[in-house]
Each structure stands twice: as C-alpha cells, then as structure tokens.
Amino acid sequence: MNAAARVPRTLVAGLALLAAIALAVIVIPMVSPYDPVAEDVSSMLRPPSAAHPFGTDQLGRDLLTRVAAAGRVDLALMVGVEAAPFVIGTLAGLVAGYRGGWADRAITLLSDALIAFPFYLLVAVVAFVTGTGVKGIFLTFLIMGWIIFARTVKGATASLAGEEWVESARVMGFSDASILLRQMLPNVLSQAVTVLASDMVALLVAIVTLGYLGLGIAPPTPDWGTMIADGQSFLATRWWVSTLPGCAVVLVGVALALIGDGLNDGRRA
Amino acid sequence: MTTPRRAALATWLGGVIVHALLVVALVAVGVFLIVRLVPGDPAQMVLGLKARPEQIADMHHRLGLDQPLWRQFASFLGTLVTTGDTGESIAYHVSSRALVMQRMPVSLWLIGCSAALVVAISLPLAMTAALHKGGWIDQLVRVVPTVTLGMPEFWVGLVLILVFAVTLKVFPVGGTQPGIDGMLYSMALPSLVIALAQTPFIVRSLRTRILDVLGADFVTTLRAAGLPERAIRRHVLRNSLLPALQLYGMKVSFLMGGTLVVEQVFGLKGVGTLLFSAITARDFPLIQAVAMYCALGVVAVSVAVEIAGGLIDHRVRGRAAASRGGAR
Amino acid sequence: MRKQFKAIRAAVAAVAAAAAALSLAACSQSGGRTTDGTVSGARTTFTYARAASVTSMNLWTEITSNNAFAIDKVFEPLVSFDTHGRIIDWLAKSHTISKDGLTYTFTLRDGLKFSDGTDVTAADAVFSIERHQAEKDAALPLTADIASVTAPDEHTVEIRLNSAYTPLLAELANFSNGIVPKDFGGKSESAFFEHPVGTGPFVVSKWDKSGDLTFTKNEHYWQKGKPGISKLVYKTVEDGTQAVNQLKTGEVDGIESPALENLDELENGADTKVETTGSWVTHTFFLNTADEHLSDVHVRRALAYALDRGDVTKAVSFGHAVTAKTVLPKGIEYSTQDSIKPVDDDLAKAKKELAQSKYPDGFEAKILLASGNNAYAQAAQLLQSAAKKIGVTLDIDSVDIATFRSRFKAYDYQIMINSAQADYPDADSIISFQADPDGFSKSYWTSYSNPEVTKELREAQVTPDGDARADLYAKIQQTLADDVPYIPLYSPQIVKAVRKDVTGLEVLPNDSVRFQDVKLG
C-alpha cells in the first residue's frame, strides 16, 4: 500500500502551524522589551499601536508579550495535563477490550458514573480542595480525561482480540502482557493519538472556560483563559483585550484539528 | 419473535437498566460525600459576612450539619425515599426538586434546539464532503469548522449577542420569552453557540463513517447477492448513522448540567446556572438534586441511544444478548 | 453510484427544511416583536436587573443585599437617611433626644397606612422594635442597652436606654427596624413574610425565590401621588455582561450593580446613563496581625508604604472611586479622608520600615483572594509587585468565595482583600467592627488589638455628636492608619446604570435606591 506512506497534506499543514506557534511563544518573550507581569498602570488599556502591537491590558501590560508568555504556560499545560490521562486511558482500554468480563464491566461502570456526574460540579469541587489553578486543572482532567481514550482503545482492541492471529499468538505461548503491549498497542495507538489531538483542543478551551467561571489559573501567571475572561467585559469597547488572546487559542485549535485530521486520513489510507 | 429471542431481549434490557440505576446510585453517594468534604459552609454564605458565631451554630443545628456524616446520610436517604426530594434548598427556602423541575424545561429546550441545529448543519456538510472526497469542497468542510473548535462558548456567545442582539437587534440579548414561538426565538442564538461547538466533531465522524460504508465489502456483497437497491441504501444509512448517534449521545450527556456557560452568557434560568449557584452557596440539598436529576437525564439518554442503536441494528441486540458486558 | 444515496439525501433535505422552518420562525419573530420592549406612550413598569434573587423578606434575619434592598421597598423605619447619608425623619414626622441621651421620642406622621389599608399606630412600632430585639437570629441587632419601648399615645413612640448610646438613631435607620403590623395582623410570622404588609411604596405581587420578583405600587402610600411607576420588576440577571447588554437594548431599565469596567461604556452610551453617589464601602487589604510576619508593625507599614493606592484606584475604578486614605469612607461623618496623614506610596520609607523590622531581608507570604472578582485580582497583583520592590515575595492564593469566607473567618490567612462596609451612617458601624478586639469579628478577623483604640471607640459610642466625638474618631483613624492592621484601598461610588429616559432615581449610599420618584420616558 503506497498510499499509507504518503503523508497527508493536512498533517503537514497542522504540524507547520503548530511549530510556528511554538516558535512565536518561545521567541517573542525573549526579544520583547516588556516584562509580561510588570504593571504600568499609566498606560492601561491602550489600543494596538506600534509600541504595543496587541495593545495593553487593564494593568498596562503589553498584550503581545503576555499572549506569548501565556502560550508557553498553556501549551506546556496542555501537553502535561493530557499525558497521564492518555497513558492511563489507553492501558485501561487495552485491558478492558482484551480481557472483557469484570475488568470491562468495572471500567464501564466507573466511566459511565463519571460522565453522569455533572462536569462543572467536579471542576468546582476539585478547585475548592486544591485552590484555583494548575493543580486543580491537572487533577480534574486526570479524573475525567482517561475516559475518552479508554473507550476508543477498548473498541479497537475488542475488535482486534477476535482476530485469528491473537489466538495463534496465545497458542504459541506469548503472555497476555506481551500480546497487549507488543502486538495490540501498536495497532490501536494511532486511533488514540488521533483522539489525543482533538482532545487537546477541548482541554485548551476548557481551561479558557474555567478562567471565565473564576476557576482558572490564578494571577499573575499569564494564561489565555484568564486573559480572555478578564477582557470579556471590555468586548464592546476594547475588543483587543480578549479577542487577541482568543485568536491564539483558535490558531492552536486549527493546528491540532488539522493534525488530528491528517492522522486519521493517514491511518485509513 | 421466538421465545428465546424475547428472553434474550429481556435480559439485555434488564442489564441496561440495572447498569443505569447503579450509575445513578454511584453519583448520588459520590455527590453526597464530596460536597460535604470540601471546604466552605452554607451558613456562612446565606447569613452574609457579618454573621455572628451563634447565628452560624444555630443554622448548622437547624440544617443538621452538626450531626455525624452517617446520620446526615441516613436522613438524606430517608427524605429521598419518602418524598422523592433531597430536601429544602438552603439558599432559596423552597423544595430542591421543585426548583430543578422549574429550571429543567429551559435546559431541555436548549439541548433540543441545539441538537436540531447540529443535525441540520452536520448531515448536509458531511454528505457533501463524503461525496466529493478529496475535492476542495471536502477540504473546506473539514478545515473551516475547526475554527470554532478553538473558540470558547462564552466568547462566541458574547460576540453573537453583540452582533445580532445589540447591534442588529434581530434576536433578544438573553432570557426567555413566553410561548413556543417565543422560546424558539430566545433559543436561536444560545443553541447556535452549542451547535457551533459540536458540529466539527459530528461532521468529521459522520463523513468518515459514510466513506467507510461506501467502501465496505458488505455493500458490494449485498449488491452481488442481488439485494434490491432500496435495501442496500437502508443499510448504508443505518451503518453511518449509528456511530454518529452514539457519539452524539455522549455529547448530549455532557450537556446535562453542562449548559452552564451558555445559560450564564444568555441569562437563561436553566439547571446549569442553578447548579453553579448552588455550588457557590454550598447549598447541599440543591446540589444533590441537580446532580441526581442530571445523572438520571444522562443515563436516560444513554439507555435511549442504546435502545435506538439496537433497533437500528438488530445485530447489536443479538450480540449484546449473547455476551452481555463483553461488548457494551 | 450517487443515485444510491437518494434516501440519505431525502433525509438531509427533510432536516434542512426543518432547520429552515426553525430559522424562519425566528425571523418572523424578530419582525413582529421589538427587541427593546418599548410600547408607545409612557411606560409604567420599571425593570431592574439584579445579580441575585430575593429569597426572604424577613427584615430581622436577612442582611445580604439581594434581600435587604427588596425588604426596604416594603418596610420602612421611623427614621432614614438621604442620598448623602444624613439622618432624616421618615415614618416619624419629628424626633427628640433628651439631654442625657437616654430618651428618644418619635412622633408618627398623620394618616400613615399599611399597604392593606389599616392605620399605623405607635403600638405597631413598639411591637416591631420589641420583636426585633427578641429575634435571636437577628442579622443587624440593636446594640444599644434598651430599657423600654413604649407608646405613650397613638402617635408617639418612646425608647428609653439604660446608658447613652449615640449610634442608636443611625441604627434605627436600618431597614431591619422597619414597622410591621402588630402581631403580623393576625397571621403567623412565616405566612406574613410570604405576603408581607408594610408602609413602603411597593407591595410584593409575584415572587419566584430563585428568579424574579414583581412589586406593584402601594395604593395607600403615605407620600401622596407616589410612586410614579405602577410596577417594579426585580429581574435576576446573574451575568454582568448580559445585564449591560439588556440595558443597552432596553430589555431592562436599570442595573443594580454594574461592573466598574463597564461604566464608561454605559455613561457615554446612546441610550444609557449612570447615577451615582458616595458610598460607605472601602475595599481593603486586611493584614492578619496574629501572623508571624505581619504581627510586626514595621512589616505592615513597609507594605503600606510600598503600595501606590492611587494606582490600584486607577486600574480598577475607571474614574468611579476615590483612593482611600483612612478606614472611614468620606460619606461617613467624622471621616478624616481630607486631613489624615496616610502611610502610603513612599518606596524609600517602605525600605526603611522593613529594615527596622524583624525581617530586613524580606519574607514570603500569601495573599488570600476570592476568585472571580476581577478588581480584587488586579489589586492583588499590584500589591504583589509593590512588595517585590522591597524584597517581600507575595504569592496569590486564589480560592472560591465560600472557601475564602471559611478560611478568613478561621483566621487562616496572612493578607486578604475584602470589602469593609458600614450598615448605617455612623462611624461606629465601621470602627467597632474593624477595631474592637472583643467583638466577635476581632477587628475584622485581623486580631488587631490596641487598648488605646478600644478605649476611645467605647468612649465615642457614648459621646454625643459634636466636636468631642469628632476628635475621638480623628485620633482613632490616625492610629489605625499608623498601625496598619489594614490598607484601605479605594471607596467606589455607588453607581446605578439606567436608560437615558429614567428620571427621579434616588441612589443611596448603602447601595440601595428609592423608586418613588422614578418616571419613565
């Protein structure tokens, strides 16, 4: 199959866009003359200009520098927060899909109960215990994030488990762990990664939404969510305060969606 | 229908319902424990900043919060079993269940209207994209909706309000208006916000699915077997819709109690905002009521999806009955 | 190949048609209805957007503003205050205070009626005050040492004290001393407060405790010809931005608490304006003087000197607040806002103070912040930067509002930002709450204790109004400014945003409003 070797265009475009964003958030704070957390109230809420291409926020901080600095925080957070649920969910899905029986039933019940548990109640409760900020976000998505991977991988594994080669592997004396990790995992991983790409966007948007609900990342750490949320009351009068950080989130969303799309195509091609 | 088939169906249905009840019970107990273990005190929230310690203690006593946890749980269960309610709301001084029932219609309207919009937007887009696979229309359909993926709902809502309500004045800024027409009118913008957030997922999965079915062996086999075209078409439709339906069922589950942000932005008095204000005020009975009724809604949707799935594709029914728990 | 998909296409077409019908319904709606809600001719219903619903009308046990500012539309006290916070006669047409400060005599206005048409007599006033005193869950209890409340005749109410207490008159101006019919007019107390009857300009007509409350005009109101509107709707709109947009399009006529950051937009809006008055509120950093670091007065002074409160005011108030120099806002009599020497904005002195403290090389501490309050978050960041300049590292500990309250009331904080507010127009309302270590609030949970201040504040409670009382409060304010148990930041104006055609709205310094003179269009 030659088609499988061809890298989908959407994947290339997505990766390029993501690389460009990453480069921007790394470089801009290094070359910017402004400190992302140093206030200068005398120049608060200036519209975009040559001196401040993105304008300034309520405390007179340069928004371009802040958007970039926030990008470092949010992109790192996105990757860091998704890692554990990805691993846990994939493993749980593998076991449930391969073993079936009680393991599957327990995981299904747990994930169904978690999904039936109102999401915002969980978010709030975690924030009450940890205080608002990174810790709470990490914990919330550890609790909820694995489900989507577990479900995806379980389905894929279950359909593979019925195939003949699995049975022959078992007959040949391969251990379950070895079959799972060496044989099944590589086959289902691409599906999990596809889900990962789109789930990362959802996570980023969720972090932004938490900022709006007052449960986001605590000041003064720059973060797109808090910036958009703080600026929302100025939307009609000072559009740049929330729109420009919002554009950053949209760009990352598009990049990840393209990557997910490309991965999906590559897998199916 | 033969007797064994009927028995299998009963077993399957029974399993689904037992599972659903277990889920609701888990949620109820989980919510009960969690809300009481987090910091914060309903008395402090209701009585205000200047409440004296005696007032606080008095209120704790009246609410039974000075009792040990197991006793509180026993009285909670007692109330639930005898009245079907979780008790009087601490903040609003009225029955929690009545409050949930009063707020539920708005949220259901919102979910219903957004579902209609999602279908209305996704089906044609996915069909067009699938039929023009690889063409520029396909690329457009796949890339353009992803823009809304990165847009938080509250922000989209605010922009829609500014454009369509404040500037153009074609839709209301928020709230609801009486009557079915008034409801549709009030729900237009808020349900569009939800639909915009969900459409990209649905379009993509539906498109992929339609493409899969197009290329599936069984379509060729069926045709080779001489099955009439109409029957084949039915198969294709069925096979593309089922997974999309299941995926959408999951999304709708999330919307139960998850319409908070849209309700907040559009000033809609639904269960989402009710839940959030209950959480803020640590209104235990009310949190409990909203969480339980939302969980009921979620399992109702998932049972409905499962049954609908079973009806669309009887193979699911047969297979599930044969190995209950193995493939759910 | 494609013709196989006719069925799918038919389904698509059906759904699309349904969607079109839906949007058509929406469009026809927009054609038929005006979104600004106006009907030609003068409107007589005033719709007021408020962030929280009215949950109880019990004037004795309630204090939170969502209830208080509904209660004060129905129940009225003997005396009240005007837009500047000056005490004025209200249901009483006049009052006298005996020379020794022990006897207060009030003469009721003639022709006073409750909203059900029955006459108001002195017996009703006696019942109300005595019932208030007996309420063990009173939110705003009368603190004077009252010996008796009597009705020498139908129009006279007499309150006798065991010992003089100057703030009594101001305390009586609270909505919690409103007059209810004797014995609740024969109803049970709980039934009465579901359908309250008072002397106020409005009567509760429709009430959803988690939603809106509709008042209708009290036909028996003692101010003849008032109120000018026939209906007043308290509409619960939780989201501030939503409320602003509803005001812009005319879906509401006023907003109770517009966010400061929206004010310039509303002030200069085509259809909107704002009404303001001075407030009794000061947003303040409270310093826990029981904390290891903050128990050192030099540390507290260093922080106060490091911070430029003017910057805080500028960043959060959009021109609608004054920088606070003292604990008493300017709207409260005896405030020394214009004459005090504040500990403020002097980096050199800040460094000097810290050098004199036990922690000359700085230290680490946390600011406890209630999440979701934009202005407080901005102020906390400014304090953080200011402290950094003198080598003090402050982290922001952001928690939700309920956790915040539980924590600071358990003295579990180092620095926090909160609002300090007078309940009634007397300096004692703030000073007792914020500087009396023996009160239940332990100097607003700062544990601040200064025997001299305690002695002076007790003395001020019994000193009749005049220069002597002014001197006492001046001394107290200077000591509090120098000891820095808190850093007062800014006193925001009380601001109400309304439609341009609204006239006669009387804005009160306790954040309430009077609607009796309101006219629309």
TrEMBL record, chain A:
<feature type="domain" description="ABC transmembrane type-1">
    <location>
        <begin position="71"/>
        <end position="260"/>
    </location>
</feature>
<feature type="transmembrane region" description="Helical">
    <location>
        <begin position="109"/>
        <end position="130"/>
    </location>
</feature>
<protein>
    <submittedName>
        <fullName>ABC transporter permease subunit</fullName>
    </submittedName>
</protein>
<keyword id="KW-1003">Cell membrane</keyword>
<comment type="similarity">
    <text>Belongs to the binding-protein-dependent transport system permease family.</text>
</comment>
<keyword id="KW-0813">Transport</keyword>
<feature type="transmembrane region" description="Helical">
    <location>
        <begin position="136"/>
        <end position="153"/>
    </location>
</feature>
<keyword id="KW-0472">Membrane</keyword>
<dbReference type="GO" id="GO:0005886">
    <property type="term" value="C:plasma membrane"/>
</dbReference>
<feature type="transmembrane region" description="Helical">
    <location>
        <begin position="239"/>
        <end position="259"/>
    </location>
</feature>
<dbReference type="Pfam" id="PF00528">
    <property type="entry name" value="BPD_transp_1"/>
</dbReference>
<keyword id="KW-1133">Transmembrane helix</keyword>
<dbReference type="InterPro" id="IPR050366">
    <property type="entry name" value="BP-dependent_transpt_permease"/>
</dbReference>
<dbReference type="GO" id="GO:0055085">
    <property type="term" value="P:transmembrane transport"/>
</dbReference>
<dbReference type="InterPro" id="IPR035906">
    <property type="entry name" value="MetI-like_sf"/>
</dbReference>
<keyword id="KW-0812">Transmembrane</keyword>
<feature type="transmembrane region" description="Helical">
    <location>
        <begin position="75"/>
        <end position="97"/>
    </location>
</feature>
<feature type="transmembrane region" description="Helical">
    <location>
        <begin position="192"/>
        <end position="219"/>
    </location>
</feature>
<dbReference type="InterPro" id="IPR000515">
    <property type="entry name" value="MetI-like"/>
</dbReference>
UniProtKB/TrEMBL annotation, chain C:
<dbReference type="InterPro" id="IPR000914">
    <property type="entry name" value="SBP_5_dom"/>
</dbReference>
<dbReference type="InterPro" id="IPR023765">
    <property type="entry name" value="SBP_5_CS"/>
</dbReference>
<dbReference type="GO" id="GO:0015833">
    <property type="term" value="P:peptide transport"/>
</dbReference>
<dbReference type="InterPro" id="IPR030678">
    <property type="entry name" value="Peptide/Ni-bd"/>
</dbReference>
<keyword id="KW-0813">Transport</keyword>
<dbReference type="GO" id="GO:0043190">
    <property type="term" value="C:ATP-binding cassette (ABC) transporter complex"/>
</dbReference>
<feature type="signal peptide">
    <location>
        <begin position="1"/>
        <end position="25"/>
    </location>
</feature>
<dbReference type="GO" id="GO:0042597">
    <property type="term" value="C:periplasmic space"/>
</dbReference>
<dbReference type="GO" id="GO:1904680">
    <property type="term" value="F:peptide transmembrane transporter activity"/>
</dbReference>
<keyword id="KW-0732">Signal</keyword>
<comment type="similarity">
    <text>Belongs to the bacterial solute-binding protein 5 family.</text>
</comment>
<feature type="domain" description="Solute-binding protein family 5">
    <location>
        <begin position="87"/>
        <end position="437"/>
    </location>
</feature>
<dbReference type="Pfam" id="PF00496">
    <property type="entry name" value="SBP_bac_5"/>
</dbReference>
<dbReference type="InterPro" id="IPR039424">
    <property type="entry name" value="SBP_5"/>
</dbReference>
<protein>
    <submittedName>
        <fullName>ABC transporter substrate-binding protein</fullName>
    </submittedName>
</protein>
